[in-house]
Design a protein that fits this description.
The chain is built from two helices and three strands. It is mainly alpha-helical. It has a single domain, classed as Glycoprotein, Type 4 Pilin (2-Layer Sandwich), CATH 3.30.700.
Length: 122
């Protein structure tokens, strides 16, 4: 048979492995939502380029992303993976960025670490 010490050691190892797996999977849902949101922003970016090509300018902040529906995207494309509307502002002060398009991320608050911008490197 096994001694009590050997059984406790095996249980300790199994517990440590289970904890490591749980920690690894804990953030998987948020990472998946972030990836889905980036895909959604790229879809909107392409729609904005098409719109600007057709109309000669990007939509203003007042016009918003709603002007892209239904000719360029479906209405559901205007929300991120957390079911919140994408944030859009145009024009901007940066000549390299004719608009700002971003998600407030999982926490839903502006200017926090989990915000996602269409201009962020992936």
């Amino acid at each position: 048979g096994f001694t009590l010490l050997e059984v406790m050691l095996v249980l300790l190892i199994i517990g440590a492995l289970a904890a490591a797996v749980a920690i690894n999977f804990a953030g998987a849902g948020e990472r998946a939502k972030a990836r889905t949101t980036r895909i959604g922003m790229n879809t909107l970016k392409n729609a904005l380029v098409e719109y600007a090509g057709d109309k000669g300018a990007y939509p203003t902040t007042a016009e918003g992303l709603q002007v892209l529906v239904p000719a360029y995207v479906e209405a559901k494309a205007l929300q991120d993976a957390w079911k919140r509307p994408f944030q859009y502002y145009a024009p901007t002060d940066d000549p390299n960025r004719p608009y700002d398009l971003f998600s407030l991320g999982g926490d839903g608050a502006a200017n926090t670490a989990d915000d996602l911008s269409v201009w962020d490197p992936e």
